[in-house]
Write a structure and sequence with these properties.
The structure holds 2 protein chains of 2 kinds. Chain A is an alpha+beta fold. Helices cover about 25% and strands about 35% of the residues of chain A. Chain A has helices at about 40-50, 70-75, 90-100, 105-120, 135-150, 165-185, 195-200, 220-225, 230-235, 355-365; strands at about 5-15, 15-25, 30-35, 55-60, 65, 75-80, 155-160, 185-190, 205-210, 210-215, 235-250, 250-255, 260-265, 275-280, 295-305, 310-315, 325, 340-345, 350. Chain A has a 6-stranded mixed beta sheet, sandwiched between helices. A 5-stranded mixed β-barrel of chain A has the order 11-12-13-19-14. Chain A has a 4-stranded antiparallel beta sheet with strand order 2-1-4-5, with helices on one face. Chain A is elongated. Chain B has helices at about 1-15, 20-40, 90-115, 125-130, 140-150, 155-165, 175-200, 205-210, 215-245, 250-255, 260-270, 275-305, 325-355, 370-375, 380-410, 415-425, 430-445, 460-485, 490-495, 500-530, 555-560, 570-600, and strands at about 70-75, 75-80, 120, 170-175, 320, 355, 365. In chain B, the strands form 3 sheets. A 3-stranded mixed beta sheet of chain B has the order 1-2-4. Chain B has a two-stranded parallel sheet with strand order 3-5. Classes of the chains: A alpha+beta, B mainly alpha.
């Protein structure tokens, strides 16, 4: 097991900047998730760490060893691919034994370790099957077994569950976390699924457009996002452009249209004109359930029953856009009527616009 | 500066281990030595050459000699002789190639559209007949075309049939027109299969949408189908053009010397004659330019034409449309007769192979003697032995070098890969006679007196030329196979610690062996049926009367076709046909059985 250190890594493909001065540290035995929308560079970062891509700048360290210019076969970083990359011409047993044979282990030792990992992953009895004779979940387990059996210095997982159906995904992500902790392997887990990242990881790095936006524990990332993009990207959220009324330390008072609300302050200064407000919209309720809360009132544009929750889109007075909120177990209000939702204060965050104009524009368009 | 260099070396080392270095360097050196250098050395043959010679009427004659068609009345029968005019060697070649390309494209595209888009009684028969000429039988095919449609004092088969039907009309092709006819009939299927493959890759919804909007018949074809299959048409047409330009078989059979290919061929007949070299080199260079420039233009244009694959997801195969009454008329009265006329020579080759004698309209008597002669006459049988020896030597080389190139181009990312890619496919565009001439000039000069001198050991030189000329079929097949295999399968092995050589052995080769075998089979039949180098360099090892000559099958076939006297009591042309049937059987086996099994349907087998 090694720690991983990425220092100032940049990578371009032609004109596209895939990685822009990325640095991060993964501790020994840690399960570290890289989370971001598709095309943000997270898979490229993983491939740079694995050695499949050479960075244009920067360095990669495993412990204190500089591995930047080592070939993949010299690094001991084993990857589990999104499509699992099982060799179709080899049986399960030979797929798993491959890495051990490459290492030149004696036959009985190979056999012992393959049996151990088959047992560990519940694959007993499947060793003589070919990959195409396995279900998706079994294929995923074989891919994981093939990586784990060589006891890699570093385990790299590239969207390992994205080709599975929802139920199996939930089950296997629990298994992956359990195994990683039992074996104490340093692992990086790349995913675009925020829930998966929060559920599985010790720490999460949020990536956007080739840069690391923020690193933190799942709880920090979700309930106290330091950066606007993190706030927007994690959870079901709504974004509004607001006027700054007053700044009182950790709290900022803003106006959305003519609606005055307070929000947790992230860098808004006295004298700033505008701020961006991000609501964790899934925290909304029809009654205030907290001591410190925020009230959002407006005309109902549309209300949709969605099973576990109801989506209500409100248009606050004097504001030209509408905001979506997700409330549990209510009777959908009538369109055109006035309605009020309540959110705990820690579900309403305000960020400064300065320096983030492009991102703000993008978020407002997307929302 | 030094740090930067060190960084570059470190990065290079990541891509270039010993294995990949060998896979890159060995084929590169081989192609530079045995393809680039021979072609480049053609220029050395141009020393002291007076270019104004090419402006003489023998080469370029702007006042064409002769009437293209001659009509005679003999005893109440109208005799039409189609001859073509003589515009000089260079213009003859160009005009002939353009005509062949035009006719072949028209016929090939029409047949492909009919077979690919419509359902009608006889569709399958048409499809089979149209692909028959793909079973190439060098020289013999042209010889049978001469028997069927050529002008001859003994009369030809088509006129005989017309006379039996009571039509007092005889027609015969000869001279340049004979070459145009023979090449058109032989080459149009190349356009046919390219267009058919292009049709197969069109997403059916594009055509269904057009039908849905009310477009049908010729409008549908003109506005939607043709633009979508244009890349296929162009690819096929370009190949036909190059094949026509370099073809030496039809000119030899029709004994028409005033085309460039025949003139270069003559160089090898009289290579000792001083002063021949300059003209041959100039003509080679001209042929090379005439072949490569149009190809480069078409390639450039094709690369801009990827919109046929705009639709997302796998294309849904098209449900064939019903053919309307006008379409029926065109199909049965126009397309069918042409396709039958083009397939007839292939059937004629089979008949000739079993004929006692066939020089006029009809064969007389059937026999198995031709096959007996084939195996009993040492000089004839020697051709088969030679061809098998050459194949057995060339194919392993093609396997190793072809795989190395395909893998390098597909998987290794260092500078210069594009050049290797270009070098490995370029031989497809270079006329065979140019290769033959270049080899002679180059190796006879730099390797004089050694095993690489074509005058010392034509066999060695032949094998090298075969490797260079026919390797592209293997390279492309293997390349496609590797590209279609997800790279993650190799990356998975390398991150588990496997070095490149082990990854290739344990992952790549087991996964693409079908493509390797398919490519090698294609290369095999194209080596066996190769003409240009075989009848030139191959002829340097003595004639077929000698039981130890070095000529391969195609050389023996040519000598038999040219031979005026019987051999072992058999008509030499019939023995040639018997030999050709062996080639045909081999080609049929490879093209229609083995490749279909190995590579799956719809893969373009013959294209540029």
């Amino acid at each position: 097991m090694s720690s991983i250190k990425v220092v100032g890594v940049s990578k371009r493909f032609g004109r596209t900047v895939a990685l822009d001065n990325v640095s991060l540290e993964v501790r020994r035995g840690e399960l570290f998730a890289i989370l971001g929308p598709s095309g943000c560079g997270k898979t490229t970062l993983l491939r740079v760490i694995a050695g499949f891509e050479v960075p244009d700048n920067g360095q990669i360290f495993f412990d204190d060893e500089d591995v930047t210019y080592k070939r993949p076969d010299e690094r001991g970083a084993v990857m589990v691919f999104q499509n699992w990359a099982l060799w179709p011409h080899m049986r399960v047993y030979d797929n798993i034994a491959y890495g051990l044979k490459v290492r030149g282990l004696p036959k009985n030792e190979i056999d012992r370790r393959v049996r151990w990992v088959l047992d560990l992953l519940g694959l007993k009895g499947l060793e003589n099957r070919y990959p195409h004779q396995l279900s998706g979940g079994q294929q995923q387990r074989v891919a994981l077994a093939r990586a784990l059996v060589v006891e890699p210095r570093v385990l790299l997982l590239d969207e390992p569950l994205s080709n599975l159906d929802a139920r199996l995904r939930l089950k296997l992500r629990g298994e992956i976390r359990k195994l990683q902790k039992e074996l104490g392997i340093t692992a990086i887990y790349v995913t675009h699924d925020q829930e998966e990242a929060l559920a599985v990881a010790d720490r999460v790095a949020v990536m956007r457009a080739g840069r690391i936006v923020e690193v933190g524990t799942p709880r920090e990332i979700y309930s106290n996002p330091k950066k606007l993009f993190t706030a927007f990207f994690i959870g079901k959220t709504s974004v509004a452009l607001a006027r700054v009324e007053d700044v009182a330390g950790d709290i900022v008072y803003v106006r959305i249209g003519s609606l005055l609300i307070k929000a947790v302050n992230h860098g808004v200064q006295k004298g700033d004109r505008d701020a961006v407000v991000v609501f964790k919209a899934e925290k909304a309720r029809s009654e205030p359930e907290w001591r410190d809360y925020v009230e959002v009132r407006g005309r109902v544009v549309v209300a949709m029953y969605m099973g576990s929750m109801v989506e209500v889109r409100l248009s606050p007075p004097g504001y030209n856009r509408d905001l979506a909120f997700y409330l549990p177990e209510i009777e959908p209000p009538k369109p055109g009527s006035q309605y009020t939702v309540y959110l705990p204060l820690n579900a309403v965050h305000a960020y400064t616009v300065g320096g983030e104009e492009d991102l703000v524009k993008e978020l407002l368009e997307e929302d | 500066m030094e740090a930067k260099l060190e960084l570059t070396i470190k990065k290079l080392r990541l891509q270039m281990d010993l294995t990949s270095l060998l896979l890159y360097i060995v084929p590169l050196i081989m192609l530079l030595t045995f393809f680039v250098a021979p072609i480049a050395s053609i220029f050395t043959g141009l020393a002291y050459f007076d270019w104004s010679l090419l402006a003489s009427p023998f080469y370029i004659n702007l006042k064409p000699v002769g009437a293209p068609v001659e009509i005679r009345q003999i005893y109440g029968v109208t005799l039409v002789i189609v001859k073509g005019v003589d515009m000089g060697v260079i213009l003859n070649s160009i005009v002939n190639s353009l005509l062949v390309t035009f006719f072949a494209t028209m016929i090939g595209t029409s047949v492909a559209l009919l077979v690919g888009l419509y359902e009608f009684p006889g569709r399958r028969v048409l499809a089979v007949l149209a692909s028959l000429p793909l079973l190439v039988t060098p020289f013999v095919n042209a010889y049978v075309i001469r028997l069927l449609y050529g002008f001859s004092l003994q009369g030809n088969t088509i006129s005989y049939m017309l006379r039996s039907l009571g039509i007092p009309f005889e027609i015969g092709f000869t001279g340049l027109a004979g070459i145009t006819l023979a090449q058109t009939l032989a080459f149009y299927p190349i356009v046919y299969i390219n267009v058919l493959a292009a049709l197969g890759s069109i997403d059916a919804t594009l055509i269904e949408q057009a039908l849905n909007l009310g477009s049908r018949g010729f409008r549908l074809i003109r506005t939607v189908v043709l633009p979508l299959v244009l890349p296929g048409i162009l690819a096929g047409a370009t190949l036909v053009y190059i094949l026509s330009l370099e073809d030496v078989g039809a000119p030899i059979v029709f004994n028409y010397r005033n085309v460039m290919s025949y003139q270069v061929f003559l160089f090898f007949q009289e290579y000792t004659a001083i002063g021949r070299t300059g003209v041959a080199a100039a003509l080679c260079l001209l042929m090379l330019l005439l072949a490569v420039v149009p190809l480069a233009v078409v390639r450039k244009y094709l690369s801009l034409k990827y919109y046929a694959r705009l639709a997302r997801g796998a294309p849904r195969p098209l449900k064939r449309l019903k053919l309307g009454p006008v379409g029926m008329l065109v199909a049965y009265l126009l397309v069918f007769p042409i396709v039958v006329a083009a397939a007839a020579p292939q059937i004629g080759v089979l008949i000739l192979a079993f004929s006692e004698r066939w020089v006029g309209a009809l064969p007389s008597g059937f026999t198995l003697n031709n096959y007996y002669v084939l195996f009993s006459k040492p000089g004839v049988f020697r051709g088969i032995v030679n061809s098998l020896t050459y194949v057995a030597t060339a194919i392993p080389l093609i396997a190793v070098l072809g795989f190395a190139i395909a893998y390098t181009v597909a998987r290794i990312r260092v500078a210069g890969i594009g050049f290797l890619d270009l070098l490995s496919t370029a031989p497809l565009a270079v006329p065979g006679l140019v290769v033959a001439f270049g080899y002679f000039i180059f190796l006879h000069t730099v390797a004089q007196g050694t095993m690489l001198d074509p005058l010392v050991s034509p066999a060695t030189v032949l094998v090298l030329a075969y490797v260079v000329r026919k390797m592209p079929f293997t390279v492309r097949s293997v390349y496609t196979g590797i590209i279609q295999t997800p790279q993650e399968l190799e990356e998975a092995a390398s991150c588990l610690g496997a070095k490149r050589w082990l990854t290739i052995r344990s992952i790549v080769v087991p996964l693409v062996w079908r493509s390797i075998v398919a490519g090698l089979l294609l290369s095999t039949i194209y080596v066996m049926s190769e003409v240009s180098v075989s009848v030139t360099i191959g002829a340097l090892g003595g004639d077929i009367v000698s039981p130890s000559h070095t000529g391969p099958i195609t050389f023996v076939i040519m000598r038999l076709i040219q031979s005026p006297s019987t051999i072992g009591g058999a008509q030499p042309q019939a023995v040639a046909a018997a030999m050709a049937t062996i080639l045909m059987a081999l080609e049929a086996l490879v093209l229609f059985v083995a490749i279909a099994r190995l590579a799956g349907r719809g893969q373009m087998l013959i294209s540029v």
